[in-house]
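# step 3/5: fold
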Amino acid sequence: MTPVLDIPHAAGAFASAFLAGAINSVAGGGTLVSFPTLIWLGLDSVTANATSTVAIWPGTLGSAWGYRREMAQVEPRFWLMIVPSVVGGITGALLLRFTPPAVFDHLVPFLILFATLLFMAQEPVQRGLKTGDAGTRRSTSWLVWGLLFQLGVGLYGGYFGAGIGILMLAALSIQGLKNIHEMNSLKVVLGGSINGVAAAYFIFARMVYWPYVLLMAVAAILGGWGGAGTARKLGSKAVKRIVIVIGFFMAAALFVKR
């Protein structure tokens, strides 16, 4: 059944995309707003997933502009993580189209819960692993593990995507990054790479519903830009608390959905 694009439906789609863009700029997880909203508006789950990915991706541009100062401070080695992000993203998008989602969906709440707990314990874990030392932070082994982990995040992100921000923030904290705004700026670019290639494939495979895409893209850009500025004003501790709350909420919501 083709959904009706009247004023209430358009308003719902716009509001969900605006909120998703703002949430993604702070901690990730905006998919859990836009994806179920699209199902409620009448799309089937696969089309809703693909449409959400394509529609929310432009919000990355707004978030990137909002975090432009922090991006300039990121160590060059971390930009290597774009490569596994792209590879994982396109692979995950292919899996969405050609494999049943049941098995992977079963693992999603566990992955998000684990990542949230890991993010909560980032400082003790960093001390225990001595990742705060400059030498450790620049070691080849940590970079390799980081690239492999990002490949897995990209695979999951291309397939569904809810929680990739939490997963990336947890991984970056273990590698020694401490500034939440710098981590968020890197997360925005890596997540944008994952969703960008997935979105391109979904468009190529004609898996999206365009009337909602165009409307939600504008809202996501506005939400992403506003969310980045708000995160900077709130401060590091407040944003970390928001990340944790969002992580637990996403895990709980997905456990209930099962």
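# step 4/5: annotate
Confidence is low (pLDDT under 50) at residues 131-136.
# step 5/5: archive (pending)
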